[in-house]
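thought: fold this chain, then report.
action: predict
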Amino acid sequence: MDRSSVIHRLKIWARGVKRDITALWLAARDPRVPLAAKLVAGFIAAYALSPVDLIPDFIPILGYLDDLIIVPIGIALAVRLIPPPIMDDLRIRAEAISRPRSAAGIGVVVVAWLGLALLTYHLLVRT
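observation:
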């Protein structure tokens, strides 16, 4: 497999991930989607669309783990929970709109960072 073929396949995969994130954002608001799928889809979409990462990208290797592992696994889980005909419709709709942003995702990440900071403070003060 030559380099240009690998790059082409990665670009196609990345476009699919972006489309699916937008489709999950739509799924979280779609009345046809079961509640459990809405919750997973909403969480993954909010996190993926947030401009703030749980693990900052400047941290070597770990900074990209969420983008390369956590988000795709979350997308796969959410897609499995959504009935295929509905997911197909959401993917078509996702291709027709621009990529949304998520203020809720920022909130989730900020709350996680505050929780980690409080836990660290608590552990340091108690010892």
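thought: worth noting. The two ends are 55 Å apart (CA to CA).
final: tokens above.
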